[in-house]
Each structure stands twice: as C-alpha cells, then as structure tokens.
Please model this.
Amino acid sequence: MVPQDLRYTKDHEWVRVEGDMATVGITEYAAEQLGDIVFVELPELGRTVTQFAAVGVIESVKAVSDLFAPVGGEVVESNLELSTSPELLNSDPFGKGWMLRIRLAAGATVDGLLDAAAYEALTAEG
Amino acid sequence: MADSHDAPLATPLAGRHAALGARIVEFGGWLMPLQYSGILDEHRAVRGRAGLFDLSHMGELFIEGPEAGAALGYALTTDPAGLKVGRAHYSMICFPEGGILDDLIVYRLGEERFMVVANASNAGAVSDALAARLEGYQVILDDRSLATALVAIQGPRSAGILAGLTDVPLDGLHYYAIEEGTVAGVPALVARTGYTGEDGFEIFVDVAAAGTVWDALMEAGKSAGLVPVGLGARDTLRLEAGMPLYGNELGPDTTPFEAGLGRVVSATKTGDFVGRAALDKARADGPRKQLVGLTVRGRGIARHGYEVYLGDRVVGTVTSGTLSPTLGEPIAMAYVTPSESAPGTILDVGIRDQRVPAEVVPLPFYKRPAQATARDVDEAPGRTTGLAGDGT
Model:
C-alpha cells in the first residue's frame, strides 16, 4: 500500500501538493529497486524546472538514476539531510526521505499524474 | 557453456536464493543473486564477520596428463609446471596479439593434474582456446563447469566456521593453496583463495552436493554472523581490494602490463607460449595506458565509462567505481596515459556535466589487517603489495 493522498509518476516519484507547494520524493518501490542509496544530487534553490525534466541524481552502490521534476515550478527547498544521510531514502522514502519542494508554476497541475490506485497497479505489473 | 544468446542457466542453489529473498540478475549467462539484505550490509559482513557466496557460475576446467604442466605453460602466460602440488597461482590466457582472453586461477592438484578456474562469461571461450592450444600434448581437457558447484566463504571468521565441517586442516592450508577432503561429509576441493581481500575459502563440489555444503555452512555460521552475499557486494569488495574484473579492467584491448599485472607474464619460462611475441614487444615498448586507483576528492561517484581529464584533455577512462563502503569515500579504477599515472597526480573525472577532482592513489584501497606474508600476497591477483613487481 502506498500513501493514498499522494500523486505518483511512472518514474516512481511521489508528489504532495499543499496550496501552491509541491513536496517531491521517490517511492518505496523505487528505493527498493535502487538498493542502498549512497549519494544524492539536488538542484540549486531558485531554479525553475519544467515538468518531467531531469533535475537531480540518485546513486545507489550499484547504479545511477535521474530525479525528474514531477511538476513544473521553482525549487524553493531541498532536503539537506540527504547529503549526509542518503540512506533516509531507503528507510523512510515517504517521510524523512523527501527530496524537494517546488512552488508550482502558474497553471501547473498534478492532474495528469497517477493516483495511488493507478500507481499500485503500475508496480504490481512488475 | 552458456553463450549470451542462450537462455540463462540456474545454479544448483537457485532455490535457496529465492527462499532467501535474493534479487536475481543475469550475469555471464547465469541467473545469479545480486543481493539479499543489501549490498552495504553484505559488504560489511564480509569485512567484519563472514559471508557465503554461490559462485557456481565460474568455469572449472581440469587438465590431466603427463604433459599437463608443459601444455598449460604453452597455453597461459604463467608457468604452471613450476607450481608445487597443492598450490595455486593467478594467471592469464592471452590472445596471440597479446590482449587478455581471461584471467584465471590455476591450481595444481597433482603431479599431472591441474584445475583452471575461469570467469563465467569467458568459460566457453577459455575451454575452446585450451582445447585448441593443448592439441598435440599428452593431456586430457575435462570441462567440468556444469558439473561443479563453487561455494565461497570469505571474511575473518571463515576459518572458524569452516573448521568444524571439514577434515582439511585449515591451519596448514596457506593462502593460494588447495587440498582435497570433505566438507559437510561430501568430497570437496578446499582452496584458500577469494576475491574479497579477506581471508577465506573456495569450496568446489559436485553440483549434487552444493545444497548440502551451503546449508551446513549457513547453519554453522549462524552464531558467527555469517550472511549470504550476492554479486553486488562481491564487486564492491573486490574493487576495494584493487582486484581487476574481466570486462572492466581486463579485456582483449588490454595487456597484462597495462593492468599492472605484468608479473603473470613469465619472463623465465623456456619455450614459446601463445601471445609471447606480442607480449615481449609490449613489455619492451612500454604500456599505452596504465591502470590506476582514483579517490574522488569532490562530490560524486565515478562510474564505469566516465572520462578522466587533465585540464581539458581526455587522458583516460574509468573502468569501475563506487562509494567505498569501508572507507566512506568514492573510489574508482581507471586507465590513464602512463604520464598521468603517478600517485598524487590530480585529475578530473567527468561526472555528468561536471568535472570533479580525483587523486591517483596506490592500489589496493583496502588491505586487511596484518596476517598476510610477503610470500602469500605475491601469488594473489591485484597489486596487493609493493613487492609484486609488474615486470615492466
């Protein structure tokens, strides 16, 4: 079961929208697939990102993976704790492992993203 | 043997891996466990306690006959005829042009009997090359790769765990030595070899006995903190230990000298061997590239295929890289032009759109505490000591 109040992408990221602020992270499924995460590179604050653009990097012991912006807007905060404790992405991906806060661009929406049921169906396919 | 286009093979321990919840990947034509609990956990278990590996994908080739030593001396770069019975050495089989076909361990089981262990992905090619090169010698080549399982136990507590299950006296079994005996009651070849930089053993048994040996070791090791370890941690362990991986550090476009392993090319062997003329020339000409260790001094992890720069000039390529679980910093191996290969040289690695500084450092990155003697390490792969001259 994934949190029901979030939206999801096919790239296994989650978004929580509160007002014009979107909090972004990766799903537990993504963290499990990557294995032990040891390095995170996040975009600089103030950067304007377009939806689905690559904005950061997540590295596990074994592999490198891109972080995509699930919504367009301005990066206003990043989780600095991840630079010293990237393992939070494995241990608490929906909580302490959050990655970015993006202020939604005018007109930006999460309507096109998956809801919890659709995302669970996606990961159930393997 | 498994060609890459064939359906992948399963080891005799596949059911155990599934029951342990392993993530399975295809490697060298086999379905192998990548990880169980996680690469970092497994890596640390081997460094601090002990880990159990299924290496049944490796190729085991038995060469027997009155000319077995001489025949292998012609086929390989080393001189197996010089090995004492019960001892082993690291070796290579090269192409006539001097490039590396595979890296191997050669065990002398008897006066006229040897076992050559090859990488899974090359086992078929090594078998074919040996068959061709041994022609005309009084030897029989018996490719027992599919009939032989290999279980390795590695880590400081390995000897303590294995001792209660085997009649092989482990105290007398030197590093790079092998002895026939039993493990968990089944006939086995027990070798003190490995690919982790730790003390440990490799146990060769018939495929039908693999489960018995695996289960007995898992049970005996439980209280000592033994855990099953997959290929993911095997890779980070060998990288910290400065040991090369075929396909990354070694390949047909690389000579043993360039890999820093020129000592496996016998300079004293009389008579011809495959690749000799090309390797003599390569030794005289000097390497075109040199394998080095790199420690990344900025943020980022250098990975296989990333370019290495001196200023704006590309001077090399990363062959393997990870965040070292033991050291907590990004480490890598890379081929660079020989003029940039001295320890202390500061280079840059191209990590995505950035140039991140990295320092050339001596290999290995990690060396286990004490124990090893100079004679011991001289026979092991990788540049484990300054005593192991590379013959250049």
